[in-house]
Design a protein that fits this description.
Number of helices: 8
Distance between the termini: 27 Å
Helix content: 25-40%
Low-confidence stretches: 1-16
Number of strands: 9
Structural class: alpha+beta
Radius of gyration: 17 Å
Strand order of the largest sheet: 7-8-6-5-4-3-2-1-9
Mean pLDDT: 90
Order of helices and strands: HHEEHHHEEEHEHEEHE
């Protein structure tokens, strides 16, 4: 019965409208999952974002430095807003539906029209690690990306010393493709990363999730 209900929900999802990548990146549609809302960031989110972005343990696993003050956070949000305006690959804020607070971000690190590929990156407040929330968010973004943009491939990388991120990618159907030695220079140090990816044909075999879109 559960599988039948899931299939019916998936089949009744509204068809995705044709979209150019630039138009899609500019509007970043609101996505809703069981526990989350993914939406564009606004300056009102600065206190929430600063709350987790100042955490050095969170910053250890990403390319950006821990925020020293809320001024750093406001600068980050201004940068995101410029990406929205210019139709460039950017990020959603991850909102916990229970509280209405932003607890992380997820979005596009890069986009290649030639290779029909995007790279996805994300960060999450430490107090919400290990609860399956990022798996929920990544699944929703992957579904929307394949459904609307019709891309061939989605990639993601994580530092080798952060295996929990790899488990998220694996749960979302990505396959581990390799260990890249000193692939990224982060904060002055060359670090090893793990490469993961999912192809459109793999995603189609799995079937899209039943997240809602606005």
């Amino acid at each position: 019965m559960g599988e039948r209900c899931f299939l019916l929900r998936w089949l009744t999802l509204p068809a995705a409208e044709p979209d150019t990548p630039q138009a899609f990146f500019a509007r970043l549609p609101v996505l809703q999952t069981e526990r989350l809302i993914l939406r564009k960031m606004t300056m009102r989110d600065a206190p929430d974002v600063y709350r987790y972005a100042r955490d050095r343990e969170v910053a250890r696993h990403v390319l950006w430095e821990a925020h020293q003050s809320i001024l750093d956070t406001r600068g980050y949000i201004r940068y995101l807003q410029s990406q929205y305006r210019n139709g460039e690959p950017g990020s959603w804020g991850i909102v916990l539906r229970e509280t209405g607070r932003v607890i992380g971000s997820i979005g596009y690190m890069s986009y290649s029209a030639e290779h029909s590929t995007v790279e996805i990156g994300y960060s999450l407040s430490r107090e919400h690690w290990g609860k399956g929330l990022m798996t929920e968010a990544l699944t929703a973004v992957m579904d929307e990306t394949f459904r609307v943009l019709g891309l061939h491939r989605i990639e993601a990388m994580h530092f080798t010393d952060n295996p929990a991120s790899g488990r998220v990618m694996e749960k979302c159907g990505m396959q581990h493709e390799g260990h890249l030695r000193e692939r990224i220079c982060c904060k002055g140090v060359f670090r090893d990363v793990e490469m993961w990816a999912i192809l459109r044909k793999d995603w189609e075999k799995r079937g899209a999730s039943a997240c809602n879109r606005i």
